[in-house]
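Batch manifest, entry 17 of 40.
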Amino acid sequence: MSVQDLHGLLSNMQRNPGMPLDLDWVDSIRVNRSAVERRASTLPARRTVKKKFQVAWLLRAISCIDLTTLGGDDTPGNVLRLCAKACRPVRQDLIQALGVEALGVRVGAVCVYHAMVSTAVSALDGSWIPVAAVAAGFPHGLNPFPQRIEEIKASVAEGASEIDIVITRAHVLNHDWRALYDEVAAFREACGEAHLKTILATGELGTLTNVGKASAVAMMAGADFIKTSTGKEAVNATLPVGLVMARQIREYEEQTGFKVGYKPAGGIRTAKQSLDWLILMKEELGDPWLTSNLFRIGASSLLSDIERQLDHAVTGHYSAYNRHPMP
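Output type: structure tokens
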């Protein structure tokens, strides 16, 4: 599937409009941690992909990466280099050797702070690659609420077509589901036509039951994606958390008919890990969640390891990381 085809899918998919907060639904959510952990442990063990099939899955993983730079030392120069890598994520000699030139391999998006949105938008003009901006007091979400709303609006005005917001964790920890719903709904309204990716910061929510409840509330409030982490927490994306969130997405679609996307982020650094997440999506949600319109991986260093694996598929040898540098 070409990058233009993926763009068409994203443009034509009906967005989740949200629904009134259903507290009975939220209260009914219970998660058995040991059962979830047992199921999650089987995912990497039960299914493997090898040789040409692995190459295909790794290329698919690249197309689902939100290539990210969220450092205090970000400059326009390194953002421009990141955008160039986003447009050509794999060395051209490898693309030719694999015979996949026609695929037009690109990443799913480039994710930056607000200050770098205009730079990224300009660099990616005409590429079909969206710019995602982190907002709403990222990473802790403790800025005054009006400032969080204005930050979202400012990033949209600069050209960001996706907004990754953070919730107030205290709403979840206090089980104040109305406050969480109202917060996410306000963020969705501020986004306008830009897609809202709601970061739950799952490593700070205490229990998997809280993760499940927060996932459901965020979708009810109109989130286009639910996302695990900012990447700044002590614990970020894990397969048990992914399983809980994926099953809430499945339940939401069964109840409403609307598909919501999923984005794990933080700590996903190896090609093997990216395959584990794709396997989870396929087994729990099905093929629609194997494209960038419904699945993203938030990562910065992951792409280098995937490119290294593709190099191995071509040459039979593992190359040094400095042959696959990131900006």
